[in-house]
Amino acid sequence: MYFNATELLIDDFVNKLKTGYRRTYGGWKPEYEDIIGWVGSMALENIANSDALYHNVEHTILVTLVGQEILRGKHIREGGVSPEDWLHFIISLVCHDIGYVKGVCRQDHDGKYATGKGDEMVALPPGSSDAGLTPYHVDRAKLFVDERFGGHKLIDAELIKRNIELTRFPVPAAEDHQDTVNYPGLIRASDLIGQLSDPRYLKKICALFYEFEETGVNKALGYRHPEDLRRNYPKFYWHGVFPYVKTAVQYLLLTQQGKQIVANLHSNVFEVEHSEIAFGLS
Q1: How does pLDDT run across 38-61, given as a tens digit for each residue?
Q2: How does pLDDT run across 135-146, given as a tens digit for each residue?
Q3: Which of 160, 167, 159, 158 is nearest to 187 (CA)?
């Protein structure tokens, strides 16, 4: 028996998903608990094959568990979150970044990858990591959902695709992307908060920087090195993220785990805003 950290991560994650459903709904529609566990395991086994530096298994786990806590807070405060709502919300989170992974779509072959738009394919430059699929990953995730869940008796693929669509970032100006209170808007909030509340997020900025480097984002935004990305973090949060997560933060503040998530989020912002204190320079 050898030690496999990724396998342990996936197993623990699946248990947390199943426990989250059971804690909320008890024995009601237990098949949903099994479906959530199956999808969680299947998706993460795929994502574990990715060589993207930042958008990996850990990122998907963090986003999904934050989303689960947002949904729990919403149900505690307002009620009305049905088992079907829970099922589709969790599947949307688990699959939201699966489009980064080379080979997950049926059309992917011989170094060419589906873009998720019709039969269009794209070839990546030699040596590209999965981060090279960043411009296409949302559409590829939606294609994956269609291919895996289209026609399923209990899983509504179209609903999941609508949820994933709102994870596009920067947020498109279209009115349907301005939602912050319905399930698609909360999916986006889960993605953003899951990333930015990670206690190790500031240590992972180098990984994110080099993903950006691969797709030309750094040049477009004027980032010369990872420290530029770090310094811009508070401005990015308050102006680019906060308007889209306000409702979700209120739901998180209703649960004990949610309070810790919000504390982690604010801690990261505070650390960069007061970096002279954090580094003992004052």
Answers
A1: 999 999 999 999 999 999 999 999
A2: 999 999 999 999
A3: 167
Q: Which CATH number is 5-278's, of 1.10.1300.10, 1.10.357.10, 1.10.1240.10, 3.20.20.140? A: 1.10.1300.10
- What is the domain partition of the chain in residue ranges? 5-278
Q: Are 185 and 176 within 8 A, CB to CB?
A: no
Give Cα separations from 233 to 56, 226, 267 (angstroms): 21, 11, 12
Amino acid 145: pLDDT: 98
How many whole angstroms separate alpha carbon 197 and alpha carbon 201? 7
Assign 3-class secondary structure to the chain.
CCCCHHHHHHHHHHHHHHHHHHHHHCCCCHHHHHHHHHHHHHHHHHHCCCCCCCCCHHHHHHHHHHHHHHHHHHHHHHCCCCHHHHHHHHHHHHHCCHHHCCCCCCCCECCEEECCCCCCEEECCCCCCHHHHHHHHHHHHHHHHHHHHCCCCCCCHHHHHHHHHCCCCCCCCCHHHCCCCCHHHHHHHHHHHHHHCCCCHHHCHHHHHHHHHHHCHHHHHCCCCHHHHHHCHHHHHHHHHHHHHHHHHHHHCCCHHHHHHHHHHHHHHHHHHCHHHHCCCC
Beta strands 112-114; 121-123: pairing state: antiparallel
Crossing angle of helices 157-165/83-95, nearest 10°? 60
Q: Which long-range contacts (CB under 8 A, 24 or more apart) does 167-171 make?
A: 167/96, 167/97, 167/138, 167/191, 168/138, 170/240, 171/244
Q: For tokens 């011989």, name the residue.
A: 110
